[in-house]
Amino acid sequence: MILLDTCALLWLIHDPAKLSKAATRAIQAHDRSRHVSSVSAWEIAIKVAAGKLTLPAGMTTETWFSRALAAYGITEICPNGALFCRAVALPAIHRDPCDRLLVATAAAHRLAIVTADTIIPQYTIINVIW
Q1: Residue 116 — very low, low, confident or very high, per pLDDT cuts 50/70/90?
Q2: Secondary structure element (H or E) that encloses residue 3, with its range
Q3: 2-129 CATH
Q4: What are phi and psi of 129, to 5 degrees?
Q5: Using CA of residue 36, residue 42, residue 45, residue 46, what is the dihedral sign?
Q6: How many helices (H) and strands (E) does the chain have?
Q7: Measured distance CA(54)–CA(102) in Å, rounded
Q8: What is the DSSP letter of 92?
Q9: Long-range contacts of 80-86 (CB under 8 A, 24+ apart)
Q10: CB-CB neighbours of 70 under 10 Å
Q11: d(CA 102, CA 105)
């Protein structure tokens, strides 16, 4: 079972060549157990609003996100209060609160996280695939 971080999700959809070979193998091998956090929808919406990411013409982030998940058989994990508290309680290794939430999500759900982030692997409570 795997959790895709936001960049892994974007690359899977728009530029699969950016995924590492290990990430690609993991995504293919876990065709029935791919997950993404709702926080990724928020991060993507922020990038779109800031002009750092362009979606297909006329497509909202909400539509893009739901279609991407459906097309790749990805299950969305919605964080709850406990996950937010766990993210805050993590060692202060990563400064990005979204990435800390992804680490907490992966740990709570016993998922390996697919990420190119170089700081996340410092959390020994999760397995990282890249």
Answers
A1: very high
A2: strand 2-4
A3: 3.40.50.1010
A4: -115, 125
A5: negative
A6: 6, 5
A7: 23
A8: T
A9: 82/108, 83/108
A10: 9
A11: 5
Taking only Cα atoms into account, the Rg of the chain, rounded to an integer number of angstroms, comes to 14
For residue 102, what are its two tokens?
């992804």
Note the helical H segments in 30-72: 38-49, 61-72
Mean local confidence (pLDDT), 20-33: 95
Q: Which of 91, 93, 122, 124 is nearest to 107 (CA)?
A: 124
Give the pLDDT confidence score for residue 31 in this predicted structure. 85
CB atoms within 10 A of CB 92: 7
Q: Is 54 exposed, middle or buried (0-12, 13-18, 19+ CB in 10 A)?
A: exposed
State yes or no: pLDDT of 58 exceeds 90.
no
- Residue 26's SS3 state is helix
SS3 75: strand
Token pair of 120 as six digits: 């996340």
